[in-house]
Amino acid sequence: MVIKGVVPNDFTYTVVIISLVKEGLHEDAFKTFDEMKNNGFVPEELTYNMLINLNAKNGNRDEVQRLYEDMRFRRVAPSNYTCATLISLYYKYEDYPRVLSLFKEMARNKIPADEVIYGLLIRVYGKLGLYEDACKTFEKIKHQGLLTNEKTYLAMAQVHLTSGNVDKALEVIGLMKSKNIWFSRFAYIVLLQCYVTKENVVATEGTFLALCKTGLPDAGSCNDVLNLYVRLNLMDKANEFIVRIRDNGTHFDEELYRTVMKICCKEGMLLEAKHLTNQM
After folding, report:
1. Where would a tag sit more exposed on the chain, N or C end, judged by fewer CB atoms within 10 A?
2. Alpha carbon 7 to chain centroid, angstroms
3. How far apart are the first and last CA of the chain?
4. Hey, what's the torsion of the CAs at 200, 176, 224, 185, to 10 degrees?
5. How far is CA 75 from each of CA 72, 80, 109, 124, 257, rounded to the nearest angstrom?
6. In this structure, are residues 272 and 264 in contact, taking their beta carbons and an 8 Å threshold?
7. Pair 272, 246: CB distance under 8 Å
8. Residue 3 β-bridge partners
9. pLDDT means per 10 residues in the chain (280 residues)?
10. In terms of C-beta distances under 8 Å and separation of at least 24 residues, what long-range contacts does 156-159 make, across chains too?
11. What is the DSSP letter of 41?
12. Distance of alpha carbon 199 from its chain centroid, rounded?
């Protein structure tokens, strides 16, 4: 890359690569990146981050890993942002051992973790059944004053819920509410799961109504409510609920459809079953 006879330096290469990425000329950006290294220049952390993030968005895991390893080889210190991008990618593809390995590497290199990274770590601990580690991490960030995001609270609530400790899950959601953190649609879904597990019909119905105010209910929540009614033999409520979600245009996934058809056949709701089958 020679512009008007001027030999580029590391700053020039960096500016060009950033410009190419912003213009969507990704192939040219990578060619310029390779040229930069071949000419003896060491890319900055910013340049690596931009290319790592670009590949992460496209799901190019091997290329992300190659860039990260090249970064380390050239002694370019990764930042919190670099690690967050990698951890998010590893989590997305359920590569949990790599998440834990990178987190340990961050600790060794004294790279500070933020709430996003800690939140993903809590989820990973939950997936691996490391309940105590998830709890310790949550308490750690709470004491550090990093606990501000709804996603972190809900991650911990889900870990409690999965481990069978519903009261603890509700305690975490209650703590989130006490901090005046806005309840998203997902928060109502998690709260609904808690009340269904506790078999609290009144609280379940109230939470479902709150969920409906955010838009059409999701199939999973509808299935949870129906299974609660069946479990408690509240078949009149189950039948009314089926008619309601059918009429309001709720999307039925395979599991919800199966649950509804089972109830309809058991209760002799053949017309409802036929009507629902025609809609699917």
Report:
1. C
2. 45
3. 58
4. 130
5. 5, 16, 12, 29, 55
6. yes
7. yes
8. 6
9. 62 87 88 90 91 91 93 92 94 94 93 94 96 96 94 97 96 95 95 98 98 96 97 94 90 91 78 62
10. 156/122, 157/190, 157/194, 158/123, 158/126, 158/190, 159/122, 159/123, 159/125, 159/126, 159/131, 159/134, 159/135
11. P
12. 27
* Cα dihedral 198, 199, 202, 203 sign: positive
Burial of 208 (0-12, 13-18, 19+ CB in 10 A): buried
Cα 153 to chain centroid, rounded = 13
Alpha-carbon gap, residue 32 to 67, rounded angstroms:
14
Cβ neighbors of 248 (< 8 A, separation 6 or more) are 216
Q: Which one-letter DSSP state was computed for residue 58? A: T
Inter-helix orientation angle 115-127/96-108, to 10° = 140
Distance CA 178, CA 230 (A): 33
Beta bridge partners of 6: 3
**How far is CA 140 from its chain centroid?**
21
Q: Is 234 left (phi over 0), alpha (psi -120 to 50) or beta?
A: beta
Q: Evaluate whether the domain defined by 185-280 bears CATH number 1.25.40.10.
A: yes
Query: What is the C-alpha separation between 106 and 100, in angstroms, rounded?
Result: 10
**Alpha helices for 39-77 (secondary structure H):** 45-57, 61-73
Query: Which two three-digit tokens encode residue 190?
Result: 């998690």
- Cβ contact 264:270 at 8 Å: yes
| d(C-alpha 280, C-alpha 275), whole Å | 9
Distance CA 199, CA 264 (A): 22
Residue type, 190: V
Residue 85: partners with Cβ closer than 8 Å, 6 or more residues away? 49, 52, 53, 56, 64
- Residue type present at position 82: T
Per-residue confidence (pLDDT) for residue 7, from 0 to 100: 67
